[in-house]
Amino acid sequence: MPEMTRYEHGVPSWVDIGTQDLSAGVCFYSELFGWEGQDMGEEAGHYTIATKDGKQVAAISPAQDPGPPRWTTYINVDDVDEVARKAESAGGKVIVAPMDVMTAGRMAIFMDTTGAVIAAWQPGQHLGAQLVNEPGVFIWSELSSSDVAKSKAFYSAVFGWSWGGGDDYPEAQVSGRTIGGLMPRRPGMPADVPDNWLVYFGAADVDADVKKATDLGASVIAGPADIPGTGRFAVLIDPQGAAFALFQS
Predict the structure, then answer these.
(1) Would you give the DSSP letter of residue 131?
(2) Are residues 113 and 142 in the same domain?
(3) In angstroms, rounded to a whole number, what is the distance separating the alpha carbons of residues 240 and 170?
(4) pLDDT category, 127, cuts 50, 70, 90?
(5) What CA–CA distance (Å, rounded) separates 92 from 86?
């Protein structure tokens, strides 16, 4: 079911992005995916919740650092403080220590053992995405890793993930259900691009959405292309430099 009322521990539950130009970021993704943005106000740092069909699906906010913008994946957890301790014990680095986000919940952000950034979310009043796995909303997160074995060990230790799939594309699992992917870092990727989590959004027609995105100022770095037996995808860079992907099953 695409409508969510709860998330199990270890399952990705939310995505957001910090942009240098908030209004331009909201405009781009709203035009592309049919989102509506609600600015949560100055007290919340103008964190803007995106909704689709009245359901919360993602957020866009002013950038908190001068680097290029990136989509961040949040993993639902029962105890964010314990997860942060596990991340450090497993060799990761806490970037944002566990903190309350008013009454919405409690969060932390950390860097894994190969340099990719991931976040943890312990829900309060904010569950996470209320709508997933359909066109225009979050459907998948995929880690590009320079050391697959090290990444698997880290995420198993921190979130309790088990692994399925194959050696060429391990799949993270929670309670026997696949919840994310792990791809060996592609040869030739620029050295200054760190290992990273790529966020996928659903598409009813990948080719049409790629056309719309490029008309809005995005650029294409992969695809559109078929994944045999699975679907069709494309990877893009938004007008402010953030990577995201589209997938049509």
Answers:
(1) B
(2) no
(3) 31
(4) very high
(5) 9
